[in-house]
Specification:
six-stranded mixed beta sheet, Ribosomal Protein L4, Chain: A, single chain, alpha/beta
């Protein structure tokens, strides 16, 4: 498929041929969902912890006589039913990460990119560079795209462009090596440079 290429001044800069196997698929929500769940599970800290019965230091003296008390024969104040006792089936420190085949991760990214292209939320620019560090000037240029919350992806960012963009709340920068399904879909618009397109196609080929 062909896609128009723009400059940062929103002027035409020719066309680029995009791979149909990456940018022109019929998006499969199930694949995208599997990858996002995998990503978010991998990010979880897993540091939730509550004391269990065996970790509570309370008396283990029998609370009453063996018979005739009319209640259960409790042998420890650390039981979950007592105030200050341990919690039954309490959460413990653990990793929420699980494995996902590489083929599924690659397909998920392909379908996420195709979803952006299908929804016309994909913009290709010739390059992401700035002659000087000017946040306001860059914000005005990007505002002409009507991108909203945009994710800009490049193989390697120009230093002036990166410093100009870092104070723009609606703009996120990401290298092609870190391109992922979650960040692609949470942005309103995906902006790729020509160098990024080449790197993505090499990575997902």
């Amino acid at each position: 498929m062909k896609q128009k290429v723009l400059t940062l001044e929103s002027k035409a800069a020719g066309e680029i041929e995009l791979s149909d196997a990456i940018f022109n698929l019929e998006p499969r929500i199930d694949l995208i969902q599997r990858v996002i769940v995998w990503q978010l599970a991998k990010r979880r800290a897993g540091t939730h912890k509550t004391l269990r019965r065996g970790e509570i230091n309370r008396t283990t003296k029998r609370l009453g006589r063996q018979k005739g008390g009319g209640t259960a024969r409790h042998g420890a104040r650390s039981a979950p039913q007592f105030v200050g006792g341990g919690k039954a089936m309490a959460p413990v420190n653990r990793s929420h990460e699980f494995s996902l085949p590489k083929k599924i991760r690659v397909l998920g990214l392909r379908h996420a990119l195709s979803a952006k292209a299908r929804d016309e939320k994909l913009i290709i620019v010739d390059e992401a560079t700035a002659s000087e560090i000017k946040t306001k000037a860059l914000g005005l240029k990007l505002g002409k795209f009507g991108a909203g919350r945009a994710l800009i992806v490049d193989k390697a960012f120009d230093a002036n462009f990166e410093k100009s963009a870092r104070n723009l709340q609606s703009i996120s920068l990401l290298l092609t090596d870190g391109l992922n399904v979650y960040d692609v879909l949470r942005s309103d618009t995906l902006v790729l440079t020509k160098a990024a397109v080449q790197a993505i196609e090499e990575r997902l080929a």
